[in-house]
Structure formats: structure tokens, C-alpha cells
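# nightly structure sweep
# worker-07 picked up a monomer target from the shared queue
# config: single-sequence mode, recycle default, output format = C-alpha cells
# input follows
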Amino acid sequence: MVLRTFGCLGSALVTVAGLAGVTWVLNLPYPMIRWPVAKTAPLILLPSYIKMDHDYRQAVSLVAQADQLVNQATSASDIELGETKVTLAQEHLDGLPVWFLGYYPTAYCGFVGCRWQFTLDEFETARSEIGRMEAVVFQERNAQNLMQEGTLAVDGAQQAFQTAESGTDRATALTTWQRGMDKLNEIPPETLAGRQSSTKLEAYERDYQQVTGNVAGGDRSNTLVDAAKAFAYQAAIAAQNPPHPAATWERAAGLWETAIARLEDIPVQDPGYGQAQVLLAEYQANLGIIQENAAREEASAQALDSAIEKNTRMLAQNLEGMDRNQIASLMQDIINDLEKVQPGTTSHSRASEMLRSANQKLAQLK
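# output follows
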């Protein structure tokens, strides 16, 4: 009895397994199998109809979601999620049997209420939409990579520029900065990354122009300051170990004036403007001293020349036939000129000797 029961159960299991195997074979996605079954025993294709219904519904839903996420993206996460939806939609479209397009399982759809219409145009439109969105996702991914590379390059260059200790380091940072902006310029403007990077790029370019302007201004001011210092150095050398003739003082004054002119060429907006103003005040003070020395030298030389000329004219006269008071008047006139010769001039030494001699002669006349 037990053996008979087990035998019946085993036969039932074998039968069920056989029927399942036949059903699986009849539901294989091959037209040569499906078409005859669909015409004679469509109910056997119930598993296929359920899968087709599920794939259709999912494909329609996922295509709509992907379209919203990809074509109306507001962030990189939308693109990533949209890419996932596109992949899933493609899988469900692939699950729809192309050979079955246009076939409507009346019995199944009458029971579950199918909403699909497997037309070739609808299928091709969905395929086209998925293909287009795949291309958009690919372009957006490349654009996001470019934006990330460009942003990292510019941010790193800005930091490197701030910590640069030499002109070479600053130049390298500026080159990297420019390359980063070039990458951002390569991003297609119609992409999400292109729209996002346009604002960043505008700010980066504004900062770059400001920085390069400061660098150029700094280089210009440094060059002018160095030139001014060179002329000032030569002016200081020319004025060493006075007294000097008026021509030497004038040459030194010219060098100071050239140094001042270099400093005055530095614009207010240049970084070196403050340093230039400090040097300018110092150089103008030095120029004033040189000009005073030149004026004293010239006036002293003129006074000495006048005294020498008057002394020569006096000696050329017949002093023995002149009155002592008249001679004393001539001597006093010479003494007055000699007293105009200032100390620290090239004329002072000779003027002092002449003045001492003239005073002695004047004392003898009195």
C-alpha cells in the first residue's frame, strides 16, 4: 500500500515536472515555437504574457523617469540616477519580443486588462529615446569629468599661487590655473556641467585677471624700483667726498631726477606703489640737498671770480697816485665778494687766502 502511494506520488511529480518543462520550452522566445502555440493554445504562453506585460509597464515608466532625470537634470546625482533608469529601461525593452510586435493576446488581456499596444513605431520610438539618452548620459559624464578636472586644477593652482615663494613658482601656478580654465572652456555649454561651470569659469577668469594684473604690476613696479635704485646709487657716488664743482653737483642732481622719474612712473594700483612713495620722499629730499649744494657752489664761484676780476683791475691801476681811502674802498669791495664765498665749496680755500691777504692790506691802509 505504501509502495503504491509513493509510486503514485512519484508519477505525479514526474508528470508535473514534465508539464513544467514542456511549458518552459513552449515559452522560449523563438518565433518558430511561439507562433504555433499562440494560434492553437495561447494560454500556455501565460508566463510570457505576464513577463511581456511587466516589461512593457516597466519600460514605459522607466523611459519617462529617465527622460525627466537626464533631460531635466539639476545636479550630477540626477544624471547618475538617470543613467541607472536608462539601463533598466533598456533591459526591459530587451525583454519585449520584437517578433511579437502587433500581436495582442486577447484572452490574457481580457482577464488582466492589458494597456500595451505593441506597435513597431512605439517600440522604435522607445529604442530611439533610450539611445539618445544614453548618448546624453555619456556626454554629461564626460562633461562632469572635465568640470571636476578643471575645478581641481584651478583650486590647486590658486592655493599654490598663494604659497609660492618665487616668481617661477607663481608662473607655474598661473600656467596650471590657465590649463584648468581651458578644460572648463571645453565643456559643451548645453550640458548640465557646462551650465554649472559657466559661473565658476567667470569667477575664475575674474580672479585670474586680477592676479595676473597684480603680478604684471608687481613686475613693473619692481623693475622701476630697481632702476630708480640704480640711478640713486650712481647719484650718491657722484656726491661723495665734497666739495665738487657745480657741474658735478648738476650731474648728481640729474641722476636723482632720473631716479625720481622712474618712481613716479609706478601706477597707484601697482603693489609696489607704497614702497615707491617712501623712496620718492627720500630721493626728493636728497635732490633738494644736491640742488642747494649746486647753487652754493655756483654762487661762490661767481663771487670768487668777481673778486679776482676786481683785484686784477685794481692792480692794473697806478695805486701810488691814488688816495688811500680810494684804495681802501676798492679793497673793501673785493673783500665783500670774497666773504660771499661759502664754506664747503671748491672756491672757499682760495677765497679764504685772498680774504686774509686783503684784510691785512686793508688794515695797513687804515
